[in-house]
Write a structure and sequence with these properties.
- The chain has about 80 residues and is mostly beta strands.
- It has one domain.
- It contains no helices and five strands.
- Strands 1-2-3 form a three-stranded antiparallel beta sheet, with no helix packed on it. The protein has a two-stranded antiparallel ribbon with strand order 4-5.
- Strand 4 and strand 5 form a beta hairpin.
- The chain starts with 8 loop residues before the first strand and ends with a strand.
Length: about 80
């Protein structure tokens, strides 16, 4: 069961649709395209799969970094992605 908060904010990922949906108090606020693991869904540690189930955000990485900063292992590389 999801943890209830004052604003009841949820982030839902659809692997088949490759979308992230942001919901606040039951209303869809935004939807974005995402890319999940090439290996598909799975639970095995180190499998390179997208884990299923409910998760919670423990930390926010990248605060204060320039837009399009490249990260490896949750650390900025100093590189800026140029599409």
């Amino acid at each position: 069961m999801p943890v209830q908060t004052a604003t009841d904010t949820l982030i839902r990922i659809s692997i088949p649709k490759q979308t992230l949906t942001l919901e606040c108090n039951g209303a869809v606020v935004a939807s974005y395209p995402v890319s999940t693991a090439l290996n598909g869904p799975g639970q095995a540690d180190g499998s390179g799969c997208t884990p299923l189930g409910e998760h919670y955000v423990r930390a926010c990485i990248g605060a204060g970094q320039p837009l399009n900063t490249v990260f490896r292992g949750r650390r900025p590389t100093g590189e800026i992605y140029s599409p």
